[in-house]
Amino acid sequence: MEPIPETLQAMDELDAVLDESALLDQLLATSGRARALVPGLVGVSLASRDQGVTFTVVASSDEIAALDAVQYLASGPCVDAIDLGHGIGTPDGLLNETLWQEFARASAARGVRSTLTLPIVSDGQTVATVNLYGHADRTFNGQHDVLAEVFGAWAPGAVTNADLGFTTRATAERAPLYLRDAATVDTATGILAAQRSITVRVARGQLEDASRRAGVPVVELARVVVELHLDQ
To answer: What is the C-alpha to C-alpha distance for residues 116 and 47, in angstroms, rounded to an integer?
Structure first.
């Protein structure tokens, strides 16, 4: 298994925040253990609530070149699980597999015939989701418990065949831009806090309020603040 280029870029963006090499090593190690147990595994995406981004590793291009031919789904539990953080055990909530499967199959990515989404739960809250992709219809049959153990996930929360379009890969491809934008907003917030002798929290509120009033994205305003500061 190997990280997609954007996941490597995202890890570099996180350099000042955490030990990105440890995070990548852990993702590769757990993915490798999972693939040793389930040889049909061709992709793994980890969506982290803490970092707000998704990291993806895939089988090498020689093994599964067709994974680049991806069609996108609008949504799915791999996204909703981390956004909602609740409803996991309700009959009409996240675990209602029929809500997603027909739609997912209609726009499946070539090379992906089955998927398994497992929530990672801490203190009753979903802190991350791991999304696994197999190249056969039955790749994950009977493997929920063992894969949940490998990734430290919650097996009863498993959802199958919900992201046959491998949309988490597209999300992971956007991770570097997301992290760069977040860093720009953080920098602008720090500049305002220092200039106005206010707390970072107050400065962030002022930045967001100004962006709403002007009708511009907060990251665009943040870029202007940073540029003006550099020009001084």
So the answer is: 14
